[in-house]
Amino acid sequence: MAAPKPLCRFWEWGKNIVCVGRNYADHAKEMRSPVLSEPVLFLKPSTAYAPEGSPVLMPAYTRSLHHELELGVVMGKRGCAVPEAAAMDYVAGYALCLDMTARDVQDECKKRGLPWTLAKSFTASCPVSAFVPKEKIPDPHNLKLWLKVNGELRQEGETSSMIFSIPYIISYISKIMTLEEGDIILTGTPKGVGPVKENDEIQAGIHGV
């Protein structure tokens, strides 16, 4: 029998990175976008992972690379059409993630009605922290996330401000696509997104974790 895959290194074997857009009202406002009545989803490939300490790569085709801080939810087992009431039973743990975004490219895609793939899905566009087991975070809707660039605080937000809860998101996504063990869901970013440039240092964390 094959040895079980370690969830603590989910980024080495997990297949899917499913991202939820505009899940914080303040971020929707800063992007001049409407607050949504249901989640908007997009995908990143597994080659987007950049484990903690790895460099974030800036695509040659962008002049405006932005950081977006997100809580990632790591799936512990396969789920299809998961009921919202049972959704948290499918969670193995969490990770802090960045949804790196080529903002100028995304703006052009929006104008032309095109998908966001060029803006969101490039290599190393998903920096990810060490895995945090579910037991260490009793309530993922009561966390404060922060991000600094070169020591300057840029983003600080509370997961209690999410528009769509984690159980709702898991249930919603799993009715569209089967989620598998090792997959991660990025749950949206609070306000304060902004640009980074070459040789900037990004630090992020969850208060108290």
From TrEMBL:
Residues 17-208 form the Fumarylacetoacetase-like C-terminal domain. Keywords: Metal-binding. Pfam families: FAA_hydrolase. Gene3D superfamilies: Fumarylacetoacetase-like, C-terminal domain. It catalyses: a 3-acylpyruvate + H2O = a carboxylate + pyruvate + H(+); oxaloacetate = enol-oxaloacetate; acetylpyruvate + H2O = acetate + pyruvate + H(+); 3-fumarylpyruvate + H2O = fumarate + pyruvate + H(+). GO terms for biological process: carboxylic acid metabolic process. One of its GO terms (molecular function) is metal ion binding. InterPro entries: Fumarylacetoacetase-like_C, Fumarylacetoacetase_C_sf. Its EC number is 3.7.1.5, 4.1.1.112, 5.3.2.2. NCBIfam families: PRK10691.1 (NF007967). Belongs to the FAH family. This is Oxaloacetate tautomerase FAHD1, mitochondrial. It comes from Daubentonia madagascariensis (Aye-aye).
